[in-house]
Amino acid sequence: MTQVSIEEYAVAGGSPYALTTGPDDALWFTMVDSGRIGRLVPGAEPAHHQLEPTCGPTVITTGPDGALWFTEYRAHRIGRITLDGTVTEFTVPTPDCAPFGIAAGPDGALWFTETAADRIGRIAVDGRITEFPVPVTGGFPSAITAGPDGGMWFTMNQADAVGRIGMDGAVTVHSLPSPAAAPVGITAGPDGALWYVAIAAGQIGRITVDGQITEFPLPDRAGRPHAITADADGALWFTEWAGNRVGSITPQGVIESYDLPTRGAEPHGITLGPDGALWTALEIGALARIGRHRP
């Protein structure tokens, strides 16, 4: 079993939700409740950039232009912040669309989900937005990631499905085997497949680019897995929001789980940090570093 060490670092000013590693070797994270973007260089003090307090910054990612891009779930905007803290915001054409997931695509643009509008959006680095309908009503498109096949893959939380959108806007929908699975996070795996977490079913899923699905139940089916990311060693790491844990799964389906030090920490986003460790956002007001050690 992999040995891990978990350290928590308080970040005052709000409750961290999602995080990513920026091009400046810092961790950038969102604080939904306080409308802030945070920045933490491992080993240094965190910094914060205040947005409109009620805008609801949610998921954040590094863009192809060297800036950080994020969704504003409550303000229905896409935000961009440069490394020096300059913020630009772009209103999505569809009103009340509630953008959530965002990821860089293979075409030099950012792609995002519109949870309340049954659409996938594309925003060029100059701010031009194009929207594409998803052929499922009320599917709640959620997380999104670039796939190994040149398309963008996304979860549909309320449709129990995973979708793919090509650069031409064509959408394919893959229904999941488990009913009431409620998939949320999704990421590209080291094995050429996509991996997702099913928050309501308590399981990890793997879907190949041709739509073949395998499901792996967690030891604690009530753990509420939320986000998932790949590490540098060929495994996937995920958060268990209700279980107060982080876990890993190999492409062969071997699962290991690790308790967080603080009870009720509420882990959400997870990413590979600039220092080679995994980092997760804790809603209690901290980031946790997960170091891995092979015995």
UniProtKB/TrEMBL annotation:
InterPro entries: Vgb (IPR051344), Vgb_bact (IPR011217), WD40/YVTN_repeat-like_dom_sf (IPR015943)
Gene3D superfamilies reported in the protein's UniProt record: YVTN repeat-like/Quinoprotein amine dehydrogenase (2.130.10.10)
Pfam families per UniProt: Vgb_lyase (PF24684)
Keywords assigned by UniProt, alphabetized: Antibiotic resistance, Lyase, Magnesium, Metal-binding
Molecular function terms from GO: lyase activity
Superkingdom as given in the UniProt entry: Bacteria
Positions contributing to substrate binding: H226
Cofactor: Mg(2+)
Broad enzyme group: lyase
EC number: 4.2.99.-
Active site: H268
Binding site for Mg(2+): E266, E283
UniProt family annotation: Belongs to the Vgb family.
HAMAP family: VirginiamycinB_lyase
Function: Inactivates the type B streptogramin antibiotics by linearizing the lactone ring at the ester linkage, generating a free phenylglycine carboxylate and converting the threonyl moiety into 2-amino-butenoic acid.
Subunit description: Monomer.
Listed name of the protein: Virginiamycin B lyase
